[in-house]
Specification:
The protein is an all-alpha fold. The protein contains three helices and no strands. α2 packs antiparallel against α3. The protein is elongated.
Length: about 80
């Protein structure tokens, strides 16, 4: 553990940075949930209609959008972490 800290010391976050990180987590959790609800509803309707190819496409779109939003969140969080007081 000591070696790890010597190679890449953990940076201390300010209270404001912690608050920003929490706000970003909350905001993106809402965005992700909203997209999941919308796409899942569309997936359910398409499955009921029997269009299995479109269901698979929509499921792939859901995974892609979730990953994209997660990556965007991590990029923004890293910017907050790098912002020195």
């Amino acid at each position: 553990m000591e070696r790890l800290n010597k190679m890449a010391p953990a940076s201390k976050l300010t209270l404001a940075q912690k608050k920003q990180l929490a706000e970003l987590d909350s905001k993106y959790a809402s965005k992700i949930a909203g997209r999941e609800i919308a796409l899942q509803d569309e997936i359910n309707k398409t499955a009921a209609a029997g269009d299995l190819e479109k269901v698979e496409t929509l499921q792939q779109q859901l995974v892609k959008e979730r990953k994209s939003l997660q990556a965007e969140l991590e990029d923004k969080k890293e910017l907050v972490r790098q912002n020195k007081p």
